[in-house]
């Protein structure tokens, strides 16, 4: 065999564990068709974090309106975009150098599985003992008239200037996070939602809080609407026409967008009309399809080894094995029933290294915090509040730590958490609505995973002032019942 392990894909689902296998003496090859590091490094998490940060700061500054604020913090998007492009351009190079440092072999091109022990890149074939599929997800584009005018998250995170009026189809992570940026930029957007709720996996009262803030800042919501067509009033030279075929297991009205397709990514003033089945008609400068992502597995040779898949990915067992014993799936492309987050992909990759080395039993998962990076943030970890409210096994306590500690929280008056405890007063879940909800969620994840009791928390000393310390102090309400 040429290699012990071949990874198809170079994101966190691959290299995080691959480096440990190489350190253990195994020969490892990473195959990448596009940029080293995958979506998160080059077209997702990092880009979003960099572009979101100034608007987060602007919102924090607005907390001091009338109590010391002088002037306005303005964000220059074109300059910010130049900075983002410069920083992100180095990510793939950085990771290529890290692969060299870890002594991981790389092959650039599309990896296609030929048989259970062979992967082809171009005309070259590599043999291996084990194959790990880490190809991630791709954006879903509705199969409607005018789909070539729709942009995806990759486009928006690279746009030269923000549109004055954006139409967003979808209200999941991408749709709501982009809506927050547009709101803080003082621009207008219409958000079209197929169902009756946004961010459906998060605590809905907190989601509603965000929606109300967005409405006040000229973001309009249209629920229970199905988009029928997108029309364009101007001639566009390079619309995004390269769309992939319908994937097995997807709905008939869904297709895949090729993220490498060339596109005219400019906004055109009032040039687009989005018509819905209900008769709703909206005009705007730019239209984003934020309808989720689906398995990126077309044309990688799954049929050659008898593997099937759905939009959720390739089904795996508790060892991340597919139906073919020596072929695994890791990260977002693996259908595990667990949230598709970069943190989970890293967990998969490190687990697989131990599994391949014969050092692991079935994979287990700690509680997993998830965050919607809206402004303000919403986070959830462990047992959700809606479960706690409907079960006799749990009690749900509301901790309004922002109202009590606004001085310490930079005037964040609305910071709040719902804390779910079992009958032994052990914390098992939390929902957080706050400017830094992600940090408070990590704190609760540690508490839940380590089963730290309220009494133990009460005996600890924390840095003050801080959001974690004041939230923890308010847990006295549960411990002492006053």
From TrEMBL:
Transmembrane segments: none annotated. PANTHER family: GLUTATHIONE REDUCTASE (NADPH) (PTHR43014:SF5), MERCURIC REDUCTASE (PTHR43014). Residues 368-468 form the Pyridine nucleotide-disulphide oxidoreductase dimerisation domain. Coiled coil: none annotated. Keywords: FAD, Flavoprotein. InterPro entries: FAD/NAD-bd_sf (IPR036188), FAD/NAD-binding_dom (IPR023753), FAD/NAD-linked_Rdtase_dimer_sf (IPR016156), Pyr_nucl-diS_OxRdtase_dimer (IPR004099). Residues 3-347 form the FAD/NAD(P)-binding domain. It comes from Methanobrevibacter millerae. This is Glutathione reductase (NADPH). It comes from the Archaea. GO terms for molecular function: oxidoreductase activity. Pfam families: Pyr_redox_2, Pyr_redox_dim.
């Amino acid at each position: 065999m040429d290699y012990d392990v071949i990874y198809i894909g170079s994101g966190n689902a691959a290299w995080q564990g691959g480096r440990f296998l190489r350190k253990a003496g195994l020969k490892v090859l990473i195959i990448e068709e596009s940029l080293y590091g995958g979506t998160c490094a080059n077209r997702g998490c990092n880009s979003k974090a960099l572009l979101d940060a100034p608007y987060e700061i602007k919102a924090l500054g607005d907390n001091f309106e009338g109590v010391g604020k002088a002037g306005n913090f303005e964000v220059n998007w074109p300059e910010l975009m130049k900075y983002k492009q410069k920083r992100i351009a180095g990510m793939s190079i950085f990771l290529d150098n890290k692969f060299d440092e870890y002594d991981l072999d790389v092959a650039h091109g599309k990896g296609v599985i030929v048989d259970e022990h062979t992967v082809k890149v171009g005309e070259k074939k590599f043999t291996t003992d084990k194959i790990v599929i880490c190809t991630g997800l791709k954006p879903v584009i509705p199969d409607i008239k005018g789909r070539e005018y729709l942009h995806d998250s990759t486009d928006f995170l690279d746009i030269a200037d923000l549109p004055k009026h954006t139409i967003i189809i979808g209200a999941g992570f991408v749709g709501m996070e982009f809506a927050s940026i547009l709101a803080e930029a003082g621009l207008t957007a219409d958000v079209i939602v197929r169902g009756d709720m946004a961010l459906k996996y998060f605590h809905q009262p907190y989601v509603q809080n965000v929606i109300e803030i967005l409405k006040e800042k000229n973001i309009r919501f249209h629920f229970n609407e199905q988009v029928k067509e997108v029309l364009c009033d101007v001639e566009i030279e390079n619309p995004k026409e390269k769309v992939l075929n319908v994937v097995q297991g997807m709905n008939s009205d869904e297709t895949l967008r090729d993220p490498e397709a060339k596109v005219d990514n400019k906004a055109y003033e009032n040039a687009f009309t989005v018509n819905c089945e209900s008769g709703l008609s909206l005009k705007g400068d730019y239209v984003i399809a934020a309808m989720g992502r689906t398995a990126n597995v077309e044309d990688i040779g799954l049929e050659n080894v008898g593997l099937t898949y759905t939009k959720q990915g390739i089904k795996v067992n508790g060892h991340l094995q597919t139906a073919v014993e020596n072929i695994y799936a890791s990260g977002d492309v693996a259908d595990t029933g667990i949230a598709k987050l970069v943190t989970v992909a890293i967990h998969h990759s490190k687990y697989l290294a131990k599994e391949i080395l014969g050092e692991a039993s079935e994979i287990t998962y700690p509680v997993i915090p998830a965050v919607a990076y809206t402004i303000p943030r919403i986070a959830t970890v462990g047992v959700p509040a809606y479960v706690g409210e409907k079960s006799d096994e749990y009690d749900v306590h509301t901790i309004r730590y922002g109202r009590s500690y606004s001085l310490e929280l930079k005037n964040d008056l609305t910071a709040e958490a719902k804390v779910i405890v079992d009958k032994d007063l052990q914390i098992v879940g939390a929902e957080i609505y706050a400017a830094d909800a992600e940090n408070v969620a990590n704190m609760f994840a540690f508490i839940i995973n380590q089963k730290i009791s309220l009494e133990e928390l009460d005996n600890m000393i924390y840095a003050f002032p801080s959001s974690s310390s004041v939230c923890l102090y308010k847990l006295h309400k549960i411990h002492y019942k006053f």
